[in-house]
Predict the structure.
Amino acid sequence: MGRKLKSCGEEKVIRLYRLIIFASMKQNTYEDIFKQNTREIIESHKCPSCNILGTGVGKNSGGAQRFMCKCCKKTFTETYLSERYRIELRYKYLNNALTREECKLIPKPTRDEWKKKGIVAIESLSFGRCSQENLELLAARAEIQKYKKRIRELAYLLVIYRNLVSIFDVKLEHCKLVDSYINIYVQRLQKNNIPHKRIWKHLPITYRQWQFWNKKRQLCKKSLRQVCKRKHSGQLTNSEVNNIKKASLNPCYDGWPLISIYYQLIRNKSISCCCDTFYRYCRLLDITKRKKKIVKKYTPIIADAPLKILHMDVTIYRPIDNSKLYIHIIRDNFSRAILGYKVATHCRSETSKQLLESVLLQNNLMNEEGKLITDGGSENKGELQKLIDKPGMLWKKLIAQVDIIQSNSMIEAANRILKYDFLFLRTINNIETLNKTMPRILREYNNRPAGMLLGLTPNEVLAGEIPDKNLFKEYIKKGDKLRRKINKKISCEISC
């Protein structure tokens, strides 16, 4: 991780600084300056009489360096102070740019003093022997060394920031908080003739995305989506939106799922749109919040015709008097209709037998073949089993998750709908009130549109109608054309 941060952050910034510095030099390059200074230092150690380079032989008591001429073998003394050397040479030594022979010509105390002071301290020394161009170069290099650590820290922070931001989704409301800073930064880059598009690789948004978000859009007050209805004429009309509001607040639809309300509005010709559009407008009106469901792989039992597969179960309900009541119900697999019910104070197989007999006689199924799916409870044994085993009975009882792999979820879903959509929303004091309320509940349930039946009611499917996903397609198309004509005639206050 450290190598990656250094390669993508620190080196790029330092390389950029170096390019700027070398581009500012006009006559001599950086290397030429230091070669020139190196030659001058070497020539300063020549013998005064022979003008031949001497070799160092030690120091005298005053601290001056002693040299011996190779020609006349005479010794001469030369005193070297730190201010004697050119500043360019000191930079070159501290940057490890001198050769080993050149370093030997500089006394060790002087070299140690240079290392102790560092590059930043050289800026405060005398620049008498430096040209103005060299001074600018050295000042820039001193500034680089001064801020080198800060640049490295900023490079690390930049990479950490980019990695953190990539985890989250950046939206319009997030960019509004920093929009003014981005505008100021882009303006400064344009003044300095720096291409501002380079900075977008360091930001979590693209240049086009920022341009689109930065546009000042006018909001239309007559539209729920706040866009012009004349320009975007495919929106629902105001009357359709009002119908959705009224249906969601209608007490007659309390406990109804939104899919049932949608198909009821379609059947009443109050709206003419697809199901997805209806849900979208429900979210805009803050009517519902859809929850994500985990879809599990499951192969349910599906009948090919009504009254071929029946499901039976019992559920417990407690009214206000806190008595324990058992509600036996039978549901058709194909139409999802509840065919019958029995309310009892005890859970017995005799009640299940009476309910099954009444449903079969009511629908003329005594001499027909079919399957009855139940669970392994005691209420589904005894008298009920005797009825199934009776000679001439063509119905076969199957125990869920014993005789078949599937569970009895079809009837369990009906129990949940019966309680949470109807019973818990009503005031039921005792068993007498429940017996009076149950017929109305079954009538309402069997006559409300169901999403599984694509807008048809359970009674309609039980009567022989087949669910069709294209049932309301032509009506929705006609409504779309009419909606566009109505929306284009609206007087718009803003210019589109």
